[in-house]
Each structure stands twice: as C-alpha cells, then as structure tokens.
Design a protein that fits this description.
The complex is a heterodimer of chains A (112) and B (114). Chain A has 112 residues and is mainly beta. Chain A has no helices and eleven strands. The chains are: A mainly beta (112), B mainly beta (114).
C-alpha cells in the first residue's frame, strides 16, 4: 500500500528565505507526483506536476524535483513571501492505487 | 473550458438525513475521483468512476456511502443517514483518459452534520 510522508509537518521562516519541503513515498511505481497548495478552508491549487519520466519542474519561484528510484521529491521555494503561507501537499498517482495518495502536508508560515 | 464544478459548496444536514454531492467533470473528461478531507486530517481517496462504472471503491465506507457517474449528468456522491463523523470537505477530481493522467480538482463541498 502506497504511503506518502511529508517533512517537516510545520515550518515558520522569515520572509525572503529559500526553503525546501520534503516528500517521500514507499512504492516507486508511480505515474506522476503533484504538489498542491491549500489555504485554510479552501480547495486545492495545483502547483507542479512531475511525470515519472521527469526529474524536475519549475514554475516561477517554485522548483520541484523527483527521484523516483529513491521515492523522494522536494519542493524548493525561493525568496519566500508572506503570501506563500499555506499548507503544501504532496500527492502521488500510481503505486498500486487508483486515486492520488496524499501526504499530510507541511504547514508553512512566512513571517513578514 | 470550465474547470471541475461541485455543488453545493456548503451543505448542512441533521443527523439521519441524506446528503447528495454533485460533481461535473471538465469537458471531455470521463474519469472521476472522490476524496474526503476530515478535519485536521489528510485527503483520502474514496472512489474512482468512469461513465456508468465504478472502477475502484476501496476507500469508501462500506455502509451508507454510494457513488455513481451516469451516462448523462454529473457524478453523485450520496451519503445516507449522515452522522456527525461525516462532517468533512469532499473533493472531486477528473482526468481525461486514464488513471495515469493528471487529475484536476473541484473547489469541494463542505458538509456539516448537526
């Protein structure tokens, strides 16, 4: 059974810092991995999708990497801003499951 | 191209009533997934449907919950005789061709059971 773990569970940093969020998964037979953002009481905003054949994806200040063989992904946020404060979710598709398997998220606070 | 639509966005029910949640996938998408997010917990897969077929319902509680995706119209997640523990956000996602495709999420329905 696929399991996804996100570390750290919570993170608070001053504005302007670069930071890394980590995600690991137990079954490497995935189709893709996706990073989402969720604001309190809101829905999911897709940030980046990495197909299993890819190593990384970039969008603006965000960069996500995927090492499928070791079951790891990182989300790198450059020059963090208070507006980046949210919960960041990692989800994998495949690995024996039909739906996405989500981690519990990293709750990020960027201090002004 | 409109995104995935869910309604209602908020639903309040009393214990014992029925809740019906609707999901209209993106145009051209024939695969629908339902997820549940309980308070302070992660998102959990419930059920995967294609038109007129349930492909995988391994994440759905065995009793009181059912889902359908008819040939015409939206997908419906139905919860009978709701209990307080059913209070959660229910998200629907759709994908175009297969379970390997990217899933696009709707805004969710927040169910509160009084």
């Amino acid at each position: 059974k696929q399991e996804v773990t996100q570390i750290p569970a919570a993170l608070s940093v001053p504005e302007g810092e670069n930071l890394v969020l980590n995600c690991s998964f137990t079954d490497s037979a995935i189709y893709n991995l996706q990073w989402f953002r969720q604001d309190p009481g809101k829905g999911l905003t897709s940030l980046l999708l990495i197909q299993s054949s890819q190593r990384e994806q970039t969008s603006g200040r965000l960069n996500a990497s995927l090492d499928k063989s070791s079951g790891r992904s990182t989300l790198y946020i450059a020059a963090s801003q208070p507006g980046d404060s949210a919960t960041y979710l990692c989800a994998v598709q495949g690995g024996g499951a039909d739906g996405l398997t989500f981690g519990k998220g990293t709750h990020l606070i960027i201090q002004p | 191209n409109a995104g995935v639509m869910q309604n209602p966005r908020h639903l309040v029910r009393r214990r014992g009533q029925e809740a019906r949640l609707r999901c209209s996938p993106m145009k051209g998408h024939s695969h629908v997934y339902w997820y549940r997010q309980l308070p302070e917990e992660g998102l959990k897969f419930m059920v995967y449907l294609q038109k007129e077929n349930i492909i995988d319902e391994s994440g759905m509680p065995k009793e009181r919950f059912s889902a359908e995706f008819p040939k015409e119209g939206p997908s419906i997640l139905r919860i009978q005789q709701v209990v307080r523990g059913d209070s959660a956000a229910y998200f629907c996602a759709s994908s175009p061709l297969s379970r390997a495709d990217e899933q696009f999420f709707g805004p969710g329905t927040r169910l509160t059971v009084l």
